[in-house]
Design goal:
By secondary structure, the protein is of the alpha/beta class. It is built from three helices and six strands, in the order E-E-H-E-H-E-H-E-E. Strands 4-3-1-2-5-6 form a six-stranded mixed sheet. It catalyses: 7,8-dihydroneopterin 3'-triphosphate + H2O = 6-carboxy-5,6,7,8-tetrahydropterin + triphosphate + acetaldehyde + 2 H(+).
């Protein structure tokens, strides 16, 4: 049987700041992110199975990404644990969705985090193939499983 890739696109709004960075992105700012998740597998060949002909139900992929990424990060502020987190937290109700991570919240590092979270939740016969995260309309980073064997 043929291997097939499925891709689903997701959008979310998130702010971040890059601690100790030497450019404008050291300032708290936001992006309208576009995340493309591509999985790979063989379509289900069981004619009696409700998912016959599918590698994975798009709804199942949507639920995984919603749980692991969107519900957590949409309209949140993402900062490194090296940043003065208490100063940001003192923004009170404006920082209710402050998320502190153990990495610099660059597009590249976010993809590594996302890949681990999504891959861990995929059905056994489905593999995470790639992720693409647009930070702006013209800037994105990509993660490929084949590069991270």
């Amino acid at each position: 049987m043929t291997s097939i890739r499925l891709t689903k696109e997701f959008r979310f709004e998130m702010a971040h700041a890059l601690w100790n960075y030497d450019g404008l992105c050291r300032n708290l700012h936001g992006h309208s992110y576009i995340l493309r998740v591509t999985v790979k597998g063989m379509p289900n060949a069981d004619a009696n199975h409700p998912k016959c002909g599918m590698v994975m139900d798009f709804g199942e992929l949507k639920a995984i990404v919603k749980d692991e990424i969107l519900d957590r990060l949409d309209h949140a502020i993402l900062v490194s644990d090296r940043a003065p987190v208490n100063d940001i937290a003192n923004l009170s109700q404006m920082a209710e969705r402050l998320i502190v991570v153990d990495y610099q919240p660059t597009c590249e590092n976010m993809l590594v985090d996302f890949a681990q979270r999504i891959a861990a939740r995929l059905p056994e016969r489905v593999m995470l193939h790639s992720l693409r995260l647009n930070e702006t309309a013209t800037s994105y980073a990509e993660w490929f499983a084949e590069d991270n064997g």
